[in-house]
């Protein structure tokens, strides 16, 4: 049976986090927040136990994994299907940091496979909103070492050797595995990453929950996962209207900044799916006389088999594929 082709959006998977807030609702229109500390909206996920479910249309209520079993090449694309089988290789999230996130690091593919039978976690951030005075912690200030890092961690002044960047809307950070990092308080971020939920938490600001218990730390696991060199994580990009301006191009994903003004025809070769994240405004996707409308906070999966369509509207889009 052939697939009924249309752009897919999914029910958000909302996650309570000790550092979360309410901006996912006030800024991005996510309703029914489970708590006043909702930190994450998983928009498109095939992570075990957190599989996205289609929101509307012919496949409403169907889990993404079920569709991938039936229509892997149609959804993923010929190249992505050949590489990943029926696995969806990326995870898309929005994060609302009311407080600082923990200082953490993610393992590479090799370590993650060996220890957790998982992909590693290369990721990128796009800052959608930043309160005045907010900052992002990313990488070391200078070349460090396990000894220096452990000494500062023990003395509770790790922040002294880390690189802090004032946060501004529109910034893009690319975090290769091994980069020590934390999203600071007062920031809303769109995150694109490999399908992995492996995080090594190093320092959590001595926070405790309602029962006086701190969250688990993974200091030993992080030691050989970390890159102690300085890293160039912030990416500059052009913002030419109606053009896919490349922000990050890596083996795991290619993300472009697309400022949409009016109409833009899109032609694809069927090798990869495309995802659009709407960070501002409203837009429509049209093909074969059908029109689908979206707004800020929507994440749209365009199956690879849908090769020709028109985008229209006034919107700021992130466009993601695997090239």
UniProtKB/TrEMBL annotation:
Signal peptide residue numbers: none
InterPro entries: Carb_Metab_Reg_Kinase/Isom, Man6P_isomerase_Firm_short, MPI_cupin_dom, PMI_typeI_cat, RmlC-like_jellyroll, RmlC_Cupin_sf
Superkingdom of origin organism: Bacteria
Name of a matching Pfam family: MPI_cupin_dom
The Phosphomannose isomerase type I catalytic domain, residue ranges: 12-118
Matching SUPFAM superfamilies: RmlC-like cupins
Domain Mannose-6-phosphate isomerase cupin, first and last residues per copy: 248-319
Molecular function, one GO term: isomerase activity
The entry's keywords: Isomerase, Metal-binding, Zinc
Name this protein carries in UniProt: Phosphohexomutase
Organism: Flavobacterium arundinis
